[in-house]
Design goal:
Layout lengths: L1 H7 L7 E5 L17 E11 L3 E12 L4 E5 H15 L8 E7 L1 H7 L5 H6 L3 E3 L2 E3 L18
Parallel strand pairs: 1-4, 1-7
Antiparallel strand pairs: 2-3, 2-5, 3-4, 5-6
This protein binds zinc ion.
Length: 150
């Protein structure tokens, strides 16, 4: 792990990331600039405790002007379960962290492989510039009434 930490210092940064915990929020508009988002496939670089890094191909909502990637948390976790059901079911439910993205070309080459190809893939990653929380305001709330003056 120490080796990886040293390596991470040299990883370039790209994209901002939001992991969306709200199932009903589709994010068809960018929460930062309000422009419509579109779907785009990314290879997300995820670290799962007990397993290390893996690249997960995931179609996310994307805003190109903001370079903002948005993924639904439940969809992401469903896909992680699928990966680990075969590989290491005992690790399902472990803490995980989405660090960044992998260049798609290198992700494809590393599919189904471990060891040296994983190390090679880690030479071609981008850490997220920042990870933001999604705060939903509005939605289902009673209209604000002026407070009675006492
Ligand atoms: Zn935007």
């Amino acid at each position: 792990m120490k080796l990886i930490e040293d390596k991470m210092k040299n990883w370039p940064e790209r994209f901002t990331f939001i992991l969306n915990p709200y199932k009903d929020t589709r994010l068809s508009a960018c929460p930062m600039c309000r422009q419509p988002t579109h779907m785009r496939k990314f290879a997300l670089l995820i670290h799962v405790e007990g397993s290390g890094f893996l690249a997960l191909g995931k179609t996310c909502r994307y805003c190109s002007p903001c370079e903002l990637i948005m993924s639904h948390q439940d969809e992401l976790e469903d896909e992680l379960v699928e990966v680990f059901e075969n590989r290491a079911p005992e690790l399902i439910g472990n803490p995980y962290h989405v660090f960044g993205t992998v260049e798609k070309k290198w992700w494809k080459q590393s599919l189904g492989q471990t060891g040296s190809s994983l190390n090679q893939m880690l030479e071609h990653v981008f850490l997220f510039k920042s990870i933001r929380n999604l705060k939903i305001t509005g939605g289902w709330q009673p209209p604000k009434k002026p407070r009675p003056i006492k």
